[in-house]
Structures are given as C-alpha cells and as structure tokens.
Design brief:
The chain has 488 residues and is α+β, with helices and mostly antiparallel strands. The protein has helices at residues 43-50, 52-58, 89-116, 151-157, 159-164, 166-169, 237-255, 268-277, 295-313, 318-336, 347-362, 369-379, 388-393, 403-411, 418-432, 464-473; strands spanning 21-26, 28-33, 62-64, 70-74, 78-82, 121-126, 139-146, 173-175, 185-187, 197-200, 208-211, 223-231, 285-286, 292-293, 436-438, 442-445, 453-454, 484-486. It is globular and about 70 Å long.
Amino acid sequence: MTVTASPAAGSGRRPPARRIIGVETEYGITCASTAGGPPPLDADHAARELFAPLIARGRSSNVFTRGGARLYLDVGSHPEFATAECDRLADLLAQDRAGELTMADLAAQANARLAAQDVPGRIHLLKNNLDAEGTGFGCHENYLVRRRGDFWNDARTLVPHLVTRQILVGAGHILTDPAGRRPARYAFSQRADQMEDAVSSATTRSRPLINTRDEPHADAEQYRRMHVIVGDSNIAQGSTLLKVGAMDLLLDYLEDGGDLSDLRLADPMRAIRDTCHDLTGTVSLELADGRTINPVDLQAEHLARVSAHATAELDLDDAYRKVLDLWERGLEAVRSGNPALVATELDWAAKYQLLSRYAQRAGTGLDDPRVARLALAYHDVDPNDGLRARLEAAGLLSRIIDEDACRAAVCTPPATTRAHLRGTAVARAEDLRRDLSVDWVNLKLDDGRSRPVALRDPFAAVDSRVDALLAAMEEPDSPRSGILISSP
C-alpha cells in the first residue's frame, strides 16, 4: 500500500476537518525507599507531597496552567495531566510531552523536600497503566465532533479499530502467571485486559472503550465529545501521533459518509484480549456477520479505506502523511514478525527490543525482577531514573517534536484554540496575583465587578471579553491573592 503525496494547489481537495483533540493521562506514583525496607510514603501521601506547591499557592490540587492544560489529583491518588485543546497534531505532541515535563518537575521538587527532611524515599512518576497490585489507570483521548443524530452509530463502528489498534500503539506489557504454570510472555498492551465493555456511560465501575457521557465542554447544541478511554499511555511520540492521527482520519472518513459497519466484531471484549496476547497478529476474530479476520488484516482494511478517502478528498500535511506511513509500516512489522521496522517509533516494539535483548544478555526470562525494573524505567518520567533521554541519545527512540518546543508548551498554550485565551488569563492572574476561577469553558475574575466569561467556542483564540477581563486585572483596586481555582 502506497501513501500518496500531497496534491498540488487547486486540486479541489481539502485538509482534514479541523478538530479539537486532547489527551488526559493518569500517572502512577510510588515512593521507593532509598535505605532499603518498605516505602516511607504510601501513594496517597506521596501524591499529597507532590501537589504541595500547588495547594500552597492556590489552595487546590486542581488547577489550570499557563499552557492551558489542567493539572489535578484524580481519584485513587493519581496525578493527572489533561492537555490543552489542540487542533494541530504537532501541538498535541508538544502538550503531551509538556505533561511529562511538568510531572517530572513536581517530582524533583518533592524529592528535594524529602531529602531536606531526611525522609529516606524518592518519588517516582510512571506514565503507564498498571501498578504492582494490578490496579489500572488510564490514558483518555477526546475528539470534538459535530452533534448529529447518527453519531453513536458511527462511534460503535469504531470499536473494531479501538480493539485492534493496540498492535500498533500499545505500550507493551509483560504478562506473568501468578500460579507459575506458564512462563512470562510479552503482550501488546497493559490497558486491553482492563476493559470490560465496548460503549457505555461508565468509567471506573465498568470500563468501556468509548464513554458516552455527554460532556462536550463547548456549545452543546453544536458539539459533543467522543471520549475514548481504552488507550495505553505512550512514551514514544510516534505512538501518540499514530493513535490520535488515525482516529482523527477515521472520524473524517465517517463524517464524509464512509462506512465501517461491515467490520463489527461479534465479541469485542474477547477480541481485545485475544489480540493483546498474540504478538503475531494472526489470531482469528469473529465478525458480527460470521466471517473471521485477524487483527493485522482488520487494521489493514481500516487503513485502506482511510487512504482511499485521503487520496480522493484530502490535502494532507506532513503530520498526516506520517500517520499513514507509520500505520502501514507498523502493520508490516507485526505481519513480518520484525519489530525492528518500527522499534524507534512505536512503544510496543521499542520496549520489546529493550527487554528481550536485556533478558538474552542476562540469560534470564521476562519474569526476572531486573527485567521488571527495566520495564518500569521505560515509563519513568524522571530525566535521571527514566530511560527516554538515554534511548533518544543512543538513537533508539526517535522524536517528532523537539524538546525545546515541548518545554515551551509547559507555559505557552496552543495559539489557535480556546486554550490560548485560558492560558493567557491564567498567566496574567498569576503574575498580578489576581483571584481567578477557571474551568474548561469559564473564566471569572473574582473582583466583585467583572462578569463571568463563557468560552463556548473551543476554536476561538480571540475574544474581546477576555481582553476586557485582562484589563480589569490591571486595575489597582482589584483584589490580590493569586488564588487560582478550577473545577471539573
């Protein structure tokens, strides 16, 4: 399958539909002893220590940042970073990495405080999906779509893609048998075995692939949010690009009249586990009409339809062309049994090569504790304890967005969405120590005079009402305390 080049101007083709996309990542947290013995802090106390500067500054563990993102402590003591609204894939990659950098900085500050207090422990933040006790936590994607009556019919036809995309964008996982009846083996995904339903309104009680809760964070008459909660947390930028880029192109295909209904699975929850545990990608999955297909061929069919749609209708930029190229090469890596084809770009392949080569050199199996520690280090966001920097320096993990741009995204919001307005307001309030209440839609200067501003258009990066709010912050009699309050 060949990915076509972008057509010349005047061809009549259009860019993919402009869409707001965001990623929410829950981080695992642990406090390891530096003196041997049990951890000096449990996860709850470690999380409180991590968020201590935020609470001291704004009396809240739920804040919005200068970069337009949301940083908060979620249920279960999971630090969470939700990217600002992005309408460009490059911005989303920078924002996602900005979340890692933000978490790493909070951990470094916490560890400095622990050392100053002679607490024999070090906090680690892990961008993965499963802790040592088997508790799962997620990485969620949000795609803004136009409100229309047949949306959920289209959404349900995306379930087969979400079930099988793990062979491309899974983060890799070592499966062990607690009873010791079979050796440890490698699987595509940590998240797949945690899922319990295809489409529902639940999130924790019964985890679905797609959450149906109608919470658009925008004008509800025009938009709704497609909330995908089945994805792995990714370290490799290529995995994140392919994960969100493929979904964006599939949504464009469906919105333009495309059809995936003939690829419905008979039993999605069985299929997601069977797909996860078979590295060959050849396990037989039953379709709703009685036919069978394997995960590689199912993904190839999705790719073929999107590629044909792109060739006929779309003018793709470099980022989207890279999505299609990586989609194709990722499938070939699974089909040929050669992870090296994408081992610098996709997490499951990079991690597989790292762990399997170490186990081979050490003469051990994947169940060796040293292999487990290496797997955790792959997901550790600390620049010293984690492996990202060393893998990148050695050419074993490639970047799409350079580190300077990612660091800039910590404090600089995307310029083309509502996040620009929010981030600018938060930055001005912090600098001037003004009381500002913030959520995804609303801004309210707590001066007793200014009216709340509701930003219901997530595509709007300019708003005269926000200009007036910024001007009101400059008034000398406006209350000063710098308390930034956010609400879900």
